[in-house]
Write a structure and sequence with these properties.
The chain has about 140 residues and is an alpha+beta fold. It has a single domain, classed as Lipocalin, CATH 2.40.128.520. It is built from one helix and eight strands. The protein has an eight-stranded antiparallel beta barrel. β2 and β3 form a beta hairpin. The N and C termini lie far apart (about 45 Å).
Length: about 140
């Protein structure tokens, strides 16, 4: 009985690092943008992830939105990230930038447990990357 118990404990301990790394690889959570001007909540949606602005001190309305009826809404609560497609290193989809009112093809990938690389591209050639920091 003792050897069986020992094997069970060892099997459980061997699985702990795997579980921790799987949890760390999940981009869901609260993230501070690279400029520190906004916080974005990323959550699982569909087969990928969506991100919504939850705080943006000093930012007001979505005045650059291409839809005139949306220009009077607050940027807080706006979904800016839709990344439904898993790819080799993360997720891809689209990013909305309220600073210029444009939507870009985009991607996100974890580069560390508390670092998320977010990339937005025009014509899949001209890309800008930011590193967001997880808020604990």
């Amino acid at each position: 009985m003792r050897p069986a118990f020992r094997r069970a404990v060892l099997a459980l301990l061997a699985a702990v690092p795997f579980c921790a790394s799987a949890r760390a690889a999940d981009p869901a959570g609260l993230w501070l943008t690279e400029t520190g001007s906004s916080r974005v909540r990323i959550a699982s949606c569909g087969g990928g992830y969506c991100g919504t602005i939850v705080s943006a001190p000093g930012k007001g309305l979505d005045v650059k939105n291409p839809d005139p009826s949306l220009r009077s809404r607050s940027v807080v609560g706006v979904q800016i990230l839709n990344a439904p497609h898993a790819d080799g290193s993360g997720y891809s989809g689209s990013l909305y930038n309220p600073n210029d009112g444009k939507t870009y093809s985009g991607s996100l990938r974890l580069t560390g447990p508390n670092a998320l690389e977010v990339s937005g591209c025009v014509m899949s050639v001209f890309c800008k990357r930011q590193t967001w920091t997880r808020v604990n």
